Amino acid sequence: MHVPDGFLDAPTSIATGVVAAAGVAVALRKSRDELDDRTAPLAGLVAAFVFAGQMINFPVGAGTSGHLLGGALAAVLVGPWTATLCISVVLLVQALFFADGGLTALGTNITLMGLVGVFVGYAVFLAVRAVLPRRLGVVPAAAAMGALVSVPVAAATFTGLFAVGGNADLDMGEVLTAMLGWHTVIGIGEAVITGLVVSAICTSRPDLVHGARRALAARAADERTDVTTSEVVA
User: Fold this and answer.
1) What is the DSSP letter of 66?
2) At what angle are helices 80-97 and 40-54 packed, to 10 degrees?
3) DSSP state of 208
4) Which domains are assigned to the chain?
5) Greatest C-alpha distance within the chain
6) pLDDT per position in the chain (234 positions), as tens?
């Protein structure tokens, strides 16, 4: 998914850079509502995990690569705005020190992975969670579904950008087929990893999981109801 320098023309790269800058600026402000003394260290761990996952690349063709995105996982664990910051930092470090994604394409990569990947994944997570019972066990499954959908959607968004401002002479049908084919497979793997990681943290420290707060509140309400009922019966 890392887009290299020169793959998109200047107007498209500038446009995605503006979108990315605006998204990161909003995330800097909104993330204050998501983080506290308990969850801030988790954000650092999430960034490290995403960094490691994204360093494993699969060649897709024409200079692009496919890999785990981590957007849905980060959004569920630390909140979508903090997730945007985590992934943006990861992409910046990769571009500066590992030549993974170009500096002129940094705005494009942040838009695709730090905005589209994060917010599509989190939107799907919220939608799945809304139709299922408010139980803690639902959180990993909803997170996995968000990861499964977010990866091919980000790939399709890249294909749209390439159709508008791609510099390479490639058939759009072939580009779309390659991107969606690879990233659907990657999405399945990401869904499995996301579900397992979220499940493990929900089992040990559910209070640290941003996406589990609704389920924890529902469980606390049920426990209060049970206590009140017991007192009335007694």
Assistant:
1) E
2) 50
3) G
4) 10-233 (1.10.1760.20)
5) 78
6) 678 888 899 999 999 999 999 999 999 999 999 988 888 899 999 999 999 888 776 665 555 556 788 999 999 999 999 999 999 999 999 999 887 778 999 999 999 999 999 999 999 999 999 999 889 999 999 999 999 999 999 999 999 999 999 887 777 888 888 888 888 988 998 999 999 999 999 999 999 999 998 888 877 775 566 555 555 555
